[in-house]
């Protein structure tokens, strides 16, 4: 019994040691003055997977390193005399289940982040950037700072959950999202970056009107997911088609009128109506059937008229028929 307990204890110790060795560790952070600005270097063991965003209040650049541990002193803060960096802190990151390095600034400036050979390098220029104006919007991605994402062979689900925590988004990830991706995005709009990440993992996201986002595999159908179809109209105007299908749209549906250019035999171009409809697949199928019935040539009645030109002489009006042949001979008149 004692031998079994000792064996289990040794196995646990070995597993803990292997896990610690496999994790990325932040070993050092340095702030240096360079010719055109300031450089912050984060030294790591292994290949760090990084996600970063900018905070306006207080001005800071936040860098989360996924699944990492810190070999520095806990809650270490490095002061800096190099403008615009005031200090750098290293703390645990709940969002990334790793380490968060926060670069506090005296003012927001242009910056770029690179990751290579275990070094995460943040180059900060002297050029200040304007604080974006906050606008009222129901879009969950509105008023969010840009995203920087530098990851290699990381799980899409883990990255999405980290971004959700960083930006305060309501995101649900289905259990069958298991793709591994390598992504390099630097300072892109949040929606653009998230869509690019999901595209790389062959996934997509479905948004509802309450701001909840569901991330799922691309080929997996989901109730409430909208699609967009373009209907090219040949015989009916887009305005009339939009009115005809208005009551068929679901609560998530919308229809937009447009035009397309069509080349003719003479080399000229004419405009033809198009209708762009976004809705759930069930509604789109019904709308497609209605548009197919409406977009047909209008039946036309063909009327042929034949004009005959005649001339009536005065004699014909009095009833003389000159078709009768009259001949005169010495014996008299023959009719």
From TrEMBL:
Keywords: Signal
Keyword Ligase attached: no
Residue intervals of the NolW-like domain: 228-300
Start and end residues of each AMIN domain: 36-115
Signal peptide: 1-22
InterPro entries: AMIN_dom, NolW-like, NolW-like_sf, Type_IV_pilus_biogenesis
The keyword Signal appears for this protein: yes
UniProt cross-references to PANTHER family, sorted A to Z: DNA UTILIZATION PROTEIN HOFQ, PROTEIN TRANSPORT PROTEIN HOFQ
Protein name: Type IV pilus secretin family protein
Organism: candidate division WOR-3 bacterium
């Amino acid at each position: 019994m004692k031998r079994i307990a000792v064996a289990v204890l040794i196995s646990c110790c070995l597993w803990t040691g292997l896990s610690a060795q496999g994790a990325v560790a932040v070993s050092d952070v340095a702030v240096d003055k360079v010719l055109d600005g300031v450089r912050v270097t984060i030294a790591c063991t292994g290949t760090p997977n990084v996600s970063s965003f900018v905070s306006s209040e207080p001005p800071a650049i936040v860098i989360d390193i996924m699944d990492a541990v810190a070999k520095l002193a806990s809650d270490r803060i490095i002061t800096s005399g190099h403008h615009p960096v005031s200090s750098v802190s290293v703390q645990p990151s709940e969002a990334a289940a790793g380490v968060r390095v926060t670069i506090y600034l005296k003012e927001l400036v242009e910056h770029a982040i690179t990751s290579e050979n275990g070094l995460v390098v943040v180059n900060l220029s002297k050029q200040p950037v304007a604080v974006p104006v906050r606008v009222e919007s129901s879009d969950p991605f509105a008023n969010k700072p840009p995203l920087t994402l530098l990851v290699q062979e990381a799980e899409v689900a883990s990255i999405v959950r980290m971004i959700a925590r960083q930006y305060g988004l309501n995101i649900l990830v289905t259990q069958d999202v298991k793709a591994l991706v390598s992504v390099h995005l630097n300072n892109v709009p949040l929606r653009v970056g998230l869509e690019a990440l999901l595209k790389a993992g062959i996934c997509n996201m479905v948004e509802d009107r309450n701001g909840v986002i569901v991330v799922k595999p691309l080929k997996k159908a989901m109730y409430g997911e909208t699609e967009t179809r373009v209907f090219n109209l040949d015989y009916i105007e887009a305005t009339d088609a939009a009115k005809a299908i208005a009551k068929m749209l679901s609560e998530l549906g919308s229809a937009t009128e447009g035009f397309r250019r069509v080349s003719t035999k003479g080399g000229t171009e004419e405009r033809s109506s198009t209708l762009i409809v976004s809705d759930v697949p069930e509604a789109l199928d019904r709308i497609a059937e209605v548009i197919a019935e409406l977009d047909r040539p209008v039946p036309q009645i063909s009327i042929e008229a034949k004009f005959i030109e005649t001339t009536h002489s005065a004699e014909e009006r009095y009833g003389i028929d000159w078709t009768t042949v009259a001949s005169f001979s010495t014996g008299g008149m023959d009719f």
